[in-house]
Amino acid sequence: MPSVQGDGLGFPIFLRHGGLLLTVRFHFHRFTGQCQAQRGRAITARRPELGPSARKLTKHAVFFQKQFKPIDKKMVCCSVFRQPILHDEGPGMKDVNGGSSTEKLIEIIRGNSQVESSPAPVSPAAAREGSRLFAAAGKGPVVGVLVEDDALRLVRMTGPVGSRRLDDCKTYPYPGNLTPADKTFPAFLKTSLQNFGVAAARIWAVLPSDQLEVYPLRLPKASARDLSSAVYWAMQKEKRFNEQQVIFDYSLVGEVMDKGIPKLQVVCYLARREAVGAVQRLYRRAGFALSGVSCEAAAINNLLGAGSAAPPGESWAHVHLDREWSRIDLFARHDFLFSRNIRTGSNSFVEAMVEESPTELSAAEALARFEGQLRGRGEDGVCQAEELLQLITPALGRLANQIERTFEYFEQTLHFSRPEKLILSGRAALFPGLATYLQEQLALTVETLDPFAVAGPSLAAIHAPAAPAERILFAVPLGLALAEVGSTTNFLYTYREKEQARKDRLTQRAAVVGLALLLGLALIFYGWQAHTRAGYQAELDRRQAELAALGPELSPQYLSALFAQARKSRDETERSLVRHKTIAVLGEVAAVSMAPNVRLHSIMIDAGEKGATGAGNLILDGFVDGNRQLLDSYLTGYIVRLQASGLFSNVRLQKTTEEIYPGIGKVLKFTLSMQYG
C-alpha cells in the first residue's frame, strides 16, 4: 500500500532473498539524476549480503524514473528493510488481490489506485484446555516457562495482579545432548516442573518470535460492540489470512490523532496455529495444561511497560540479541506497538571477530573469547575488550543501521514519536562497550536490562541469581510470570474468548440483578400485603364497633318501614323505564341503521301489556340500495348487526321485494320484525 512520506510518495515492493523477505520502499524526491545513481550504489555498498537483490532494486528505481514522465525531475530512492519469511505463500496466505507488487506500484503512480495514509504492514477458535483454566484467573501462583536451546528457565510468582512477588526461579540445563525437539524432552519437562513445584499454578509459555507476525493498524473510531468486526475485516483487507492456518488476535492501544482526525490504534497478531498447537502438545505430553501462550514482546511489556508504574519513556524500544537473530520491539508507554526480527545476532559478532582479526582466529576461539567477555573473564594479553569491540564494529554497525531504520518507520509511517530509550536484553547485550556504542550511534539512552531490578523490590528476592549473564536470561520468564488472563496477549484466549467471557459476565450480572429485583419486588409485595391486611383489620374492627353501637336487634316496625320505602323506589324506577324505553329502542335502531346502504321507511313499536317489565315488538320497513349484486349481502349484514345488538332478539325477515325508485334505481325493500326488552 502506498503511504505519504516526506515530500513524496513511498511505495513498498516485497522481494525474496534466500530466507529473507526484503521490504523495499521507493521514495520519489526532488533530486537530480546524478544523486539517483549514487543512491543506487550506496544501497549495494551498505548491504553487500543482498547481492543480486540490491542490484535488482537499483534497476527498479531506474525503470520507474524512465516510465513516468511527470516525475522526471524527481529521483527514486530505495529504503530496504528485511525480516525472516514467517509463512509460506500457501492457500489463505497469498495476496488474493492479484498482480505483482511492481504492477500495483505502476497502477498507483498512474493514478488508478487510491493513495492511503495507512502503512503497508499491516479463526476457527483454537482448541482450549478447558474453561476451568481461564475461570481460575487471579488465583494461585503463576509460573513462567522459557524453553531455550540449552536450558529450561522457570519463574514462579505469587500474589494478586499489581503486587506479585518472586517466589522462586531456577535454571534446568539439558542433560547430555537433549534438545527440545527430542521425543524424550516432555519427560524432562515434566520432571523439571514437578521438582520446581507448579501444583495449582497457572503456567504460561512463550511462542517463538519467528512464528508470529505483528501489524499496527489505525481505524476510524468505532463502538465497542463493532470494534472487533472492524479490526478483523480491516486486517483481512490489509493482509488476507486463513484462520485455518493462523490465530488472529488484536489489542487496543487507544485513540490517536492522524492528520487531525481521531482514530483508534490497534495492534494485530497473526500466530501460526500449528506452532501454538505444538507448544500446547508439548506441555500436554508432560501432563500439564497451559493457561496462556504469549509472545516475548508481551512478556517484556509486562516487565517494563504494562507491569511497571514508570515505563522507560513515552516511546521506548527493546532489542533482544539472540544467537542467530535479534528482535526489535517498539512501545508507547504501557502499550506494545510493533516488532521486527533481523538476522543479526551474537553469531554475527563472532563471525566479524574471525573476519576482522589481524591474526588467524578460529570460530571456536572467537566464540570462547566472546563468551569470556560476557562472563567477565576476558583473557588479558590476548585481546582486550576494546579490541574485540573494534573487531565486531561492522556487525554492530549493521545492527545500529537496522534499529535506526526501524525507528524511522516507527516515526514516519506509524507517526509515533522516536523512542527515547533503548533497553537491551540477551546475553550478547552484556558485551563490554556494546551499549555505549549503540548509544553513540543512535543518539539516545541505551541500558542493559536487569530483569530482577527494573520492577522494584518485589523481584529482588534471595532466589535471584547473582551473575549478570544468568540474570538477564530470566527477562522473558519473569514477564510471563507477571501475565494475567484477559490483559496479556494470549493465543489461547483471544479477543473472541474475551468477548464471550464479557457476555457471560453480563449475563451473570443480569441474572443476579434480575434475582435481586425479584426478591425486592417480593419483599415490597409482602410489605404491601401486610399493610393492606392491617388496614382491612382496622376497618373490620371499626364496622363491628359501629354495629355494636346500633343496638342488639332490629324491630318489626323498622323493617316494615324499610320494605315500604324499597317498594316505593321500585315503582318509581318502573315508571321511569316506561317513559324512557321507547327512546332507548329508537336510539339503538338509529345506531344500527347508520350503514350507507340501509334506509328506513317506518318504525312501529308495540310496548306490550307489561310495559317496562315485559318484551315489546318492533317492525321496521325500509330498503337497501347500491350494487345490485350485493343487495342481499347488504340486507344480511344489517340483520346480523341487529342480532348482535344486546337490545333486540328474534329478528325475522317478513318479506322482501325488488323495486325501482326514481333517482335511486333498483332497491330491495324489506320488512323486519323483532322483539326488544
From TrEMBL:
<keyword id="KW-0812">Transmembrane</keyword>
<dbReference type="Pfam" id="PF11104">
    <property type="entry name" value="PilM_2"/>
</dbReference>
<dbReference type="InterPro" id="IPR005883">
    <property type="entry name" value="PilM"/>
</dbReference>
<dbReference type="InterPro" id="IPR043129">
    <property type="entry name" value="ATPase_NBD"/>
</dbReference>
<keyword id="KW-1133">Transmembrane helix</keyword>
<feature type="transmembrane region" description="Helical">
    <location>
        <begin position="506"/>
        <end position="528"/>
    </location>
</feature>
<feature type="transmembrane region" description="Helical">
    <location>
        <begin position="472"/>
        <end position="494"/>
    </location>
</feature>
<dbReference type="InterPro" id="IPR050696">
    <property type="entry name" value="FtsA/MreB"/>
</dbReference>
<keyword id="KW-0472">Membrane</keyword>
<protein>
    <recommendedName>
        <fullName>Fimbrial assembly family protein</fullName>
    </recommendedName>
</protein>
